[in-house]
């Protein structure tokens, strides 16, 4: 699958999520994104440095500004199970808006064409680092990193595009 | 959630002959030869991974010439694993060492970075060595793999424990369902050493 790009439609897929009441849910991307402006950003792995210390905090701290510019949902996905995502989310007690969604076996990441083989680092097949802006399921911004660096996929770049 | 796991496991457990020849791992078999070419990954930070060039630990380094108690569980940060299974070994570490055990190892199908985070959260890093079977090959070789997709975990491991002396399995306990915690705790294995 070619990586998702501007003009494409966000594919649908099921992601795992422990909701506000601590219930394990399967949510569909379309149910969260249809008719709305959403940010979908992805990271290679929970509990790894760039993801934890730079990428995720950026979206957490800029969440209010992003919402003020009309963003309805800020969705984080990673190829991790929902228990790990929940534990990782708990390390950000200040987080109010970012939803930590689990793409347990990487099916949604694959549908986006954004898989990255990190087997030699002990992670298996994960996601590339990226940030997308979608308006009623149509991708309007697609910032996808090469490798594991963190240059264009942060909250700042999305803010500029809004 | 536990009931989801139990329902799912009973379906596949019906086919998995409990007690009878458990595939490649059973009392008397050699754990290293049962899983040739398999390595595990010590729980570590990313920086430690970079510094060691993401090296892995071959099974023989873990088991040869040592008395090891090893236990496996479905997943880091999940209920029974966090609240009962790991604490059981953490709280009995002195008794295990008094019986001549060189290392107590916890293994799960998780990556080593998640495992390090979890081990620190449970404050168990000093007592127990955590290893990741990140692609499930260790558990697959020992026929301890289980599909927990119903709980959104994918392919994981059963809940189990073993006493391994210089690579030879001397005691081997596997729960009937991963949500149960009856035979795989420290108290049981202490009597089997």
UniProtKB/TrEMBL annotation, chain A:
| Listed SUPFAM superfamilies | Thioredoxin-like (SSF52833)
Q: Where is the Thioredoxin domain?
A: 4-162
Q: Does the keyword Oxidoreductase apply?
A: yes
The active site is formed by 51
**Biological process terms in GO annotation:** cell redox homeostasis; cellular response to oxidative stress; hydrogen peroxide catabolic process
A GO molecular-function annotation: thioredoxin peroxidase activity
Keywords, alphabetical: Antioxidant, Oxidoreductase, Peroxidase, Redox-active center
> Which reaction equations make up its catalytic activity?
[glutaredoxin]-dithiol + a hydroperoxide = [glutaredoxin]-disulfide + an alcohol + H2O
Recorded hits in CDD domains, A to Z, give: PRX5_like
User: Which InterPro entries does the entry mention?
Assistant: PRX5-like, Redoxin, Thioredoxin-like_sf, Thioredoxin_domain
Q: Name one Pfam family in it.
A: Redoxin
What Gene Ontology cellular component terms go with this record?
cytoplasm
**EC assignment:** 1.11.1.25
Q: Which family does it belong to?
A: Belongs to the peroxiredoxin family. Prx5 subfamily.
Q: Which PANTHER family match?
A: PEROXIREDOXIN (PTHR10430), PEROXIREDOXIN-2A-RELATED (PTHR10430:SF8)
Annotated function: Thiol-specific peroxidase that catalyzes the reduction of hydrogen peroxide and organic hydroperoxides to water and alcohols, respectively. Plays a role in cell protection against oxidative stress by detoxifying peroxides.
Name the chain's protein: Glutaredoxin-dependent peroxiredoxin
Per the record, the gene is gb05220
From TrEMBL, chain B:
Signal peptide (from-to)? none
- Where does this one sit in the cell? Mitochondrion matrix
Q: Which EC class is the enzyme in?
A: oxidoreductase
Coiled coil segments of this chain: none
Domain annotation Thioredoxin: ranges: 29-193
Quote the Gene3D superfamilies the UniProt record gives.
Glutaredoxin
Kindly report the protein's main subcellular placement as a broad class. mitochondrion
UniProt entry keywords in alphabetical sequence: Antioxidant, Mitochondrion, Oxidoreductase, Peroxidase, Redox-active center, Transit peptide
Quote the catalytic activity from the record: [glutaredoxin]-dithiol + a hydroperoxide = [glutaredoxin]-disulfide + an alcohol + H2O
Offer a single GO CC term for the protein. Answer: mitochondrial matrix
The entry assigns this protein to a family as follows: Belongs to the peroxiredoxin family. Prx5 subfamily.
UniProt function note: Thiol-specific peroxidase that catalyzes the reduction of hydrogen peroxide and organic hydroperoxides to water and alcohols, respectively. Plays a role in cell protection against oxidative stress by detoxifying peroxides. Reduces preferentially hydrogen peroxide rather than alkyl peroxides. May be involved in mitochondrial redox homeostasis.
Quaternary structure, from the entry: Monomer.
From the Swiss-Prot or TrEMBL record, give the protein name. Glutaredoxin-dependent peroxiredoxin
- The protein's gene is named ga23957
């Amino acid at each position: 699958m070619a990586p998702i790009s501007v003009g494409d439609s966000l594919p649908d897929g099921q992601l795992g999520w422990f909701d506000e009441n601590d219930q394990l849910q399967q949510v569909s991307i379309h149910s969260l994104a249809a008719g709305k402006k959403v940010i979908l950003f992805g990271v290679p792995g929970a509990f790894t440095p760039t993801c934890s210390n730079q990428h995720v905090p950026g979206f957490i701290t800029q969440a209010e500004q992003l919402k003020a510019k009309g963003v309805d949902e800020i969705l984080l996905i990673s190829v991790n199970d929902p228990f790990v995502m929940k534990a990782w989310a708990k390390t950000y007690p200040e987080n109010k808006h970012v939803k930590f969604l689990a793409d347990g076996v990487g099916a949604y990441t694959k549908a986006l064409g954004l898989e990255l083989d990190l087997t030699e680092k002990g992670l298996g097949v994960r996601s590339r680092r990226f940030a997308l802006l979608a308006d009623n399921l149509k991708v309007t911004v697609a910032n996808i990193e090469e490798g594991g660096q963190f240059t264009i996929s942060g909250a700042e770049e999305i803010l500029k595009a809004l | 959630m536990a009931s989801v796991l139990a329902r799912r496991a009973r379906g596949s457990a019906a086919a998995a002959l409990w007690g009878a020849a458990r595939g490649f791992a059973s009392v008397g078999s050699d754990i290293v030869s049962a899983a040739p070419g398999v390595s595990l990954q010590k729980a570590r930070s990313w920086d430690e991974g970079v510094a060691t060039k993401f090296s892995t630990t071959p099974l023989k380094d873990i088991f040869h010439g040592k008395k090891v108690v090893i236990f496996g569980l479905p997943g880091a940060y999940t209920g029974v694993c966090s609240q009962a299974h790991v604490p059981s070994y953490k709280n009995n570490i002195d008794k295990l060492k008094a019986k001549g055990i060189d290392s107590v190892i916890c293994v799960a199908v998780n990556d080593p970075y998640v495992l390090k985070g979890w081990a620190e959260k449970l404050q168990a890093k000093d007592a127990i060595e955590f290893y990741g079977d990140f692609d499930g090959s260790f558990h697959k070789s020992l026929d301890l793999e289980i599909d927990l997709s119903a709980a959104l975990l994918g392919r994981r491991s059963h809940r189990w424990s073993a006493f391994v002396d210089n690579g030879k399995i001397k005691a081997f306990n596997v729960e009937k369902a991963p949500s149960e915690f009856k035979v795989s705790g420290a108290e049981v294995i202490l009597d089997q050493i």
